[in-house]
Amino acid sequence: xxxxxxxxxxxxxxxxxxxxxxxxxxxxxxxxxxxxxxxxxxxxxxxxxxxxxxxxxxxxxxxxxxxxxxxxxxxxxxxxxxxxxxxxxxxxxxxxxxxxxxxxxxxxxxxxxxxxxxxxxxxxxxxxxxxxxxxxxxxxxxxxxxxxxxxxxxxxxxxxxxxxxxxxxxxxxxxxxxxxxxxx
Length: 184
Prior knowledge:
Blueprint: H1 2-11, E1 26-30, H2 38-49, E2 54-59, H3 67-73, E3 76-79, H4 87-95, E4 101-105, H5 120-128, E5 131-133, E6 136-138, E7 143-145, H6 156-170
Parallel strand pairs: 1-4, 1-5, 2-3, 2-4
Antiparallel strand pairs: 6-7
Helix pairs in contact: 1-2, 4-5
């Protein structure tokens, strides 16, 4: 099935330096810059082309009728943002039950430009002892990849600055460049 996704990725005009998914059983892969719903499609096709099975968090309200099974088949995990429990705690509970889990997260938390990125991925990584990879989709070069493993300290305030600065230095371009900010 990876051949189909490789063909689809090429048909869409995208390339990747990666030849295999992340080799860890469980990890977090960031998706930056997240400026369009198309980012999900590109990253999904990319990771499946490598033989990987990405998981993403999606609002529970999207899982209605026939859309629910389709969303689950594409690796979507329903999260309830209305309850007192944070989304990060829901994912920590879910991830601790899984042997293999590659969670793709957009740390910006929205497709709009924000200076302050969400730190939930750092909370999940620390609680579940996971490595975080600097995934990207660069619409200017049409290159997508899971990137390198980030060296995090466990200090949330310092780590989020480090991650945002890391991406600032990469100069990736989103599908809608005006909707992307690293806060610098």
